[in-house]
Amino acid sequence: MSDYLLPYLANCSLLFTEEPLLRRPAAARAAGFGAVEFWWPFAAPVPSDREVDAFTTAIEEAGVALAGLNFFAGDLAGSTWTGTWPPWPAAATAAG
């Protein structure tokens, strides 16, 4: 592990996917990242205390900062639409 940290953060929902989710913060740290972000890492909108504790422990033990954590938004796999784009409702309807 390097003492030099990259000035970027790693999105662990996209990177290090060969690792189980809770090992990704450590993989990011080993690659030189000092901070990570995740899309919602839990299967449900309200995770159990045990799931939250395991997630925060993985972050802490890896020695990285959690710089971003998206809120639950349902199953977005394959989705290319965003609710922040003003023409979204009409475009989504037109696209079928």
Write up what this structure looks like:
The chain is α/β, with parallel strands linked by helices and 96 residues long. The protein contains three helices and three strands; from the N terminus they run βαβαβα. The chain has helices at 24-30, 49-62, 88-95, and strands spanning 10-11, 35-38, 65-69. A three-stranded parallel beta sheet has the order 1-2-3, covered by helices on one side. The mean pLDDT is 83.
SSE order and pairing:
Layout: E1 10-11, H1 24-30, E2 35-38, H2 49-62, E3 65-69, H3 88-95
Parallel strand pairs: 1-2, 2-3
What structural class is derived from the secondary structure elements? alpha/beta
The helix tally amounts to 3
Overall pLDDT, averaged? 83
Percent helix, as a range, is 25-40%
Using DSSP, what is the number of strands?
3
| Percentage of residues in strands | 5-15%
* Gap from first CA to last CA: 48 Å
Shape: globular
With strands numbered from the N-terminus, the spatial order across the biggest sheet is: 1-2-3
Q: What series of H and E elements makes up the topology?
A: EHEHEH
Low-confidence stretches: none
The total tally of domains equals: 1
What features would you highlight for this structure?
96 residues; alpha/beta
Entry summary:
The protein is of the alpha/beta class and 96 residues long.
